[in-house]
């Protein structure tokens, strides 16, 4: 339970008295404080990131040679299934939920989420879901890929598949409960002075994310329930031998799983909008455009799913429809990228670790976005379907945008969360290693895909060896790159220099309270006096002459 | 690189947002609303639980939507529906059953009206009646199951029929359990009152939801 401080009389001189020290045991219990839950989410997610990353490293080791010599093809199937599922459902989704949990109430000036207990329940569904999934590796891992298409998934082993379904149902429930909480909190709990368009863009992104979660996750649950009936009760919804239709599963699955890629990336779109503006000391370029494009993305994201199924016998008119919607979704996404770049343009950029990751995010996401538009074109997609080109594409989006985004967010909000500064030198080393490793791993995969190397297979033609060796080296580099981050985070948490309340001189509300925030976030509910991104407009200048000619508005050339 | 150093130097918080009541006007539509800071830090926020339930039910309806669309798709692409040899569904019993379930929505609404007049006895009466109607519905459905001449695995039509109705039945059962929970809580005098009756409203909302789902289900499975 949230510890509630005794009511005390407050005057304007009273410092924040509600206390911000926490016992470490709080983080292992059923706390209803959104800040504790946010950190629980982030740490749990990172734990699963390490697991998913280890699986990927084993896979890359296997792929260093054309023959399946390190692990058997069966084990490899299990590895790729678990790698995908763990990374998506236990790392990116909880990491985004963790950021949302931590930041939303602080950003909108609320004391907590709308439903604190529900929030804690949602979090505590994640560890069982994850441990269930990971434990399957020790007896019978699911082997049908993270998509689990029937009829393949009906033939690769009942136990593993059953565990996979169970784990996703639990994780999906957690996701839905979180989505309800985010949406209600943002819509109903803002301080009275904050209208929707005064909100930080992260909150806009979370509205869009929550809508997607609420609309699409239940459909996946429906598909999984039917799949479970096929597996265990002997029905034939998706089994062609019994008169069923596997393509219906694909539609239901992608109705969730395509919007899911926006569930993975939209929270980080929101986070980067905060980071670029603060670290470039400039108002965000096109606040409304970025805000509304999130909503447009979530709408369009719901009507593009069949572009994953161009080779599944989808009729041509339907392929045409989905090709066009898929290409159209590049427009709101492009608006966002344009907004971030225009924010950086002639800004007073501080090359902090957070900013470096933000720039890496923009660059890599751009590559992933462009290959995404390429894949939207039906003829090209049919050519490279299920090749490493697709693997390269979605890793540029999921790793380049989502994972870089999470690291960026951690570097940016770590002082707020822990009250300690992270070490910037190690942060930059982390960035350099991750960026290099990432590109070394995934860039060659574009070429491999165009050459025709199939994904999801443990062995390959010897002509692909050289590029695969390169990718494997890159993956080792990425594995190594987490070490400086881990050391930095753990060391800084304990011994880092104390962080002031507002180390980045940001204007959003989460920085207008202690670091780490008081138990109930704010002494007095804050009142907005500026917009969230009014940097360089003279607000700070009143008190800090140094900021008077902050870039953003050109210094008059007299 | 002096920008770097400037941004690294941890600075004091530059602006204290709290306790200010001045309004300064600025150009370009920036936000300059300033109000009196809310006084207490233990202020209650309004009750958002019903809104939360509504959002949850919207999400839950997407689960049924997925299943419905799967059913419609299976049906549309089938060459023959239901497959030859499948005995046709009887309509009379499910029809009566539907009427009972739909009327129960009106009955449960009486409980809501009652609690708004602080009449907790009325809530007990109307909730008990709704529970009774829900149980009759479930028993009717079990009776129908036992008399059907096809089983879950017989063909795609049979599977979708059982899974859809069964899944809905599960929701009815949950609703009944929640109504029992409300009755249990209503033992304590003053637990539900004119101002404070979230549980009753939430269950009512849920029950209407279960009803609407049934209507769609009935049209899809029995009438179409």
What's the main sheet of chain B like?
A: none
Q: What's the number of structural domains of chain B?
A: 1
Average of pLDDT of chain B: 82
Q: Which structural class should the secondary elements of chain A be placed in?
A: mainly alpha
Total of helices of chain A: 15
What is the tally of beta strands of chain B? 0
In the CATH scheme, the class of chain A would be: Mainly Alpha
Query: What would you call the structural class of chain B?
Result: mainly alpha
Tell me the strand percentage band of chain B: under 5%
Could you tell me which chain pair has the largest interface and how many residues each side has?
A-B, 88 and 63 residues
Taken from the alpha-carbon principal axes, the silhouette of chain A is globular
Concise summary:
The complex is a heterodimer of chains A (558) and B (224). With 558 residues, chain A is mainly α.
Question: Would you mind describing this structure in some detail?
Answer:
The complex is a heterodimer of chains A (558) and B (224). Chain A has 558 residues and is mainly α. Chain A has a single domain (40-547), classed as Cytochrome C Oxidase, Chain A (Up-down Bundle), CATH 1.20.210.10. Chain A has helices at residues 34-62, 73-107, 116-139, 152-155, 158-188, 201-233, 246-279, 287-301, 316-328, 330-344, 353-376, 378-384, 388-418, 424-451, 465-495. In chain A, α2 packs parallel to α5 (158-188) and α7 (246-279) packs parallel to α10. Chain A is globular, with a radius of gyration of 24 Å. Chain A starts with 33 loop residues before the first helix and ends in a 63-residue tail after the last helix. Mean pLDDT of chain A is 90; it is low at 1-17 and 541-558. With 224 residues, chain B is an all-alpha fold. Chain B has a single domain (49-58, 71-223), classed as Cytochrome c oxidase, subunit III, four-helix bundle (Four Helix Bundle (Hemerythrin (Met), subunit A), Up-down Bundle). Chain B is elongated. Chain B contains 6 helices and no strands. In chain B, α3 (92-116) packs antiparallel against α4 (120-147), α3 runs antiparallel to α6 (198-223) and α5 (156-185) runs antiparallel to α6 (198-223). Chain B has helices spanning 2-8, 49-77, 92-116, 120-147, 156-185, 198-223. Chain B is 65% helix and 0% strand. The chains are: A mainly alpha (558), B mainly alpha (224). At the A-B interface, α5, α6 and α7 of A face α1, α2 and α5 of B.
């Amino acid at each position: 339970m949230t510890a509630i401080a005794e009511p005390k009389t407050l005057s304007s001189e009273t410092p924040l008295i509600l206390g911000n020290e926490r016992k470490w045991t709080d983080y292992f219990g059923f706390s209803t404080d959104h800040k504790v839950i946010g950190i629980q989410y982030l740490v749990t997610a990172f734990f699963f990131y390490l697991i998913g990353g280890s699986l990927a490293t084993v896979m890359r080791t296997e792929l260093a040679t054309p023959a399946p010599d390190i692990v058997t093809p069966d084990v490899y199937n299990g590895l790729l299934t678990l790698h995908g599922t763990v990374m998506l459902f236990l790392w990116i989704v909880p990491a985004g939920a963790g950021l949302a949990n931590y930041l939303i109430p602080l950003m909108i000036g609320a004391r907590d989420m709308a439903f604190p207990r529900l929030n804690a329940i949602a979090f505590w569904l994640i560890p069982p879901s994850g441990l269930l999934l990971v434990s399957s590796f020790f007896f019978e891992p699911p082997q049908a890929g993270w998509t689990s298409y029937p009829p393949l998934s009906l033939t690769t082993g009942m136990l593993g598949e059953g565990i996979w379904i169970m784990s996703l149902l639990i994780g999906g429930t957690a996701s839905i409960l979180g989505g309800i909480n985010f949406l209600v909190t943002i819509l109903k709990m803002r301080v009275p002075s904050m209208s929707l368009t005064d909100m930080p863009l992260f909150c806009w992104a979370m509205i869009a994310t929550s809508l997607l979660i609420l609309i699409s996750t239940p459909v996946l649950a429906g598909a999984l329930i039917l799949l479970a009936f096929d597996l265990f009760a002997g029905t034939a919804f998706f089994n062609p031998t019994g008169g069923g239709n596997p393509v219906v599963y694909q539609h239901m699955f992608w109705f969730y799983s395509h919007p899911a890629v926006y569930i993975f990336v939209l929270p980080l779109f929101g986070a980067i909008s905060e980071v670029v503006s603060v670290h470039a000391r400039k108002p965000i370029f096109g606040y409304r455009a970025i805000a509304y494009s999130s909503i447009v993305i979530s709408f369009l994201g719901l009507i593009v799913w069949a572009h994953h199924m161009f080779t599944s016998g989808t009729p041509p008119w339907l392929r045409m429809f989905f090709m066009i919607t898929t290409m159209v979704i590049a427009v709101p996404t492009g608006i966002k990228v344009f907004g971030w770049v225009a924010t950086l343009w002639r800004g007073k950029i501080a090359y902090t670790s957070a900013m470096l990751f933000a720039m890496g995010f923009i660059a890599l996401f751009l590559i992933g976005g462009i290959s995404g538009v390429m894949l939207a074109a039906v003829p090209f997609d049919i050519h490279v379907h299920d090749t490493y080109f697709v693997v390269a594409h979605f890793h540029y989006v999921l790793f380049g945008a989502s994972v870089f985004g999470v690291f960026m967010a951690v570097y940016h909000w770590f002082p707020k969360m822990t009250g300690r500064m992270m070490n910037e030198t190690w942060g930059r080393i982390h960035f350099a290693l991750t960026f290099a490793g990432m590109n070394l791993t995934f860039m060659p995969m574009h070429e491999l895909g165009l050459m025709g190397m199939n994904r999801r297979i443990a062995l390959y033609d010897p002509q692909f060896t050289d590029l695969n060796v390169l990718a494997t080296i890159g993956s080792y580099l990425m594995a190594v790159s987490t070490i400086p981050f881990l050391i930095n985070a753990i060391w800084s948490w304990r011994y880092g220099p104390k962080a002031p309340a507002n180390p980045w001189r940001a204007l959003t509300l989460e920085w207008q309270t202690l670091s780490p925030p008081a138990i109930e976030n704010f002494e007095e509910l804050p009142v907005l006096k500026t917009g969230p991104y009014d940097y360089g407009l003279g607000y700070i200048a009143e008190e800090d002459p140094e900021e008077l000619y902050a870039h953003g508005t050109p210094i008059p050339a007299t | 690189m002096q920008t770097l150093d400037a941004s690294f130097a941890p600075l004091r918080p530059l602006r204290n947002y709290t306790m200010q009541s001045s309004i300064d006007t600025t150009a370009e539509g920036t936000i300059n609303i300033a109000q009196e800071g809310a006084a207490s830090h233990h202020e209650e926020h309004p009750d958002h639980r019903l809104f939360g339930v509504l959002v949850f039910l919207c999400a839950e309806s997407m689960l049924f939507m997925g299943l419905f669309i799967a059913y419609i798709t299976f049906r549309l692409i089938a060459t023959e529906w239901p497959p030859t040899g499948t005995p046709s569904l009887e309509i009379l019993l499910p029809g009566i059953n539907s009427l009972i379930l739909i009327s129960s929505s009106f009955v449960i609404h009486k409980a809501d009206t009652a609690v708004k007049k602080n009449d907790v006895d009325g809530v007990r009466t109307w909730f008990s009646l709704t529970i009774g109607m829900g149980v009759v519905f479930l028993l009717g459905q079990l009776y129908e199951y036992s008399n059907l001449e096809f089983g879950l695995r017989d063909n795609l039509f049979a599977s979708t029929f059982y899974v859809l109705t069964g899944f809905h039945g599960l929701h009815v059962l949950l609703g009944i359990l929640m109504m029992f929970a409300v009755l249990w809580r209503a033992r304590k005098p003053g637990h539900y009152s004119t101002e404070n009756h979230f549980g009753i409203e939430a269950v009512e909302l849920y029950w209407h939801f279960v009803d609407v789902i049934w209507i769609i289900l009935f049209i899809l499975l029995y009438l179409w």
